[in-house]
Design brief:
73% of the residues lie in helices and 0% in strands. It is an all-alpha fold. The longest helix has 22 residues, at 52-73.
Length: 182
């Protein structure tokens, strides 16, 4: 079956990178390895992505963030987090390799959150000048990525639902409340 569109090639390259990354550290994977495994030539890769890090960003956006956006837009935060953690768990070996590339994940999450915040707060002014949509999206991206990285590095020993509930618990309480509830 012939590959037809850009998305098909993107998915083929992503699948290739993910399969290789399970066996080799991402930083040592070459574009040639990715394209050889995908059965395409190197120029095809560069027609779609600048480098493997942009491909990683595409994977994070399409496999993790895009599926949860509709849930977040409908105030279904727990469900969004469960879906996010479930999708990470499905590709546990690959995402375990990506923990080292947290800056890429943070950037992707920050951009999604920034767009959501800007859409929701359009025309309103914050009580605190420092709390801009950029600062808020950066804060929550950092928080979400930290929680996800910790969950991955601890071996994903709790279920995605339990992780989502723990994360939601931390988000909705003050530090003082959490200390008192321990």
């Amino acid at each position: 079956m012939a590959i037809q569109g850009k998305t098909d090639i993107d998915q083929l390259l992503a699948k290739s990178l993910k399969e290789i990354a399970v066996r080799r550290p991402v930083e040592k994977i070459t574009i040639k390895e990715i394209t050889d495994k995908a059965g395409v030539i190197r120029p095809t890769f560069y027609n779609h992505f600048q480098d493997k890090f942009e491909l990683i960003e595409w994977i994070i956006r399409t496999e993790l963030l895009e599926p949860v956006e509709p849930l977040i837009r409908n105030d279904m935060i727990i469900e969004a987090m469960v879906l996010l953690f479930t999708n990470i768990e499905k590709d546990k070996a690959f995402y375990s390799q990506l923990v080292k590339f947290h800056d890429i994940a943070k950037k992707c999450v920050r951009e999604v959150l920034l767009e959501l915040i800007q859409n929701e707060s359009s025309g309103r002014v914050s009580k605190h000048k420092w709390l801009t949509p950029e600062v808020i999206s950066s804060y929550y991206a950092q928080s979400m990525c930290f929680a996800t990285e910790e969950w991955i590095s601890m071996g994903m020993t709790i279920s995605p639902r339990e992780m989502a509930e723990a994360y939601q618990y931390m988000l909705t309480r003050s530090l003082t409340d959490i200390i008192k509830e321990l």
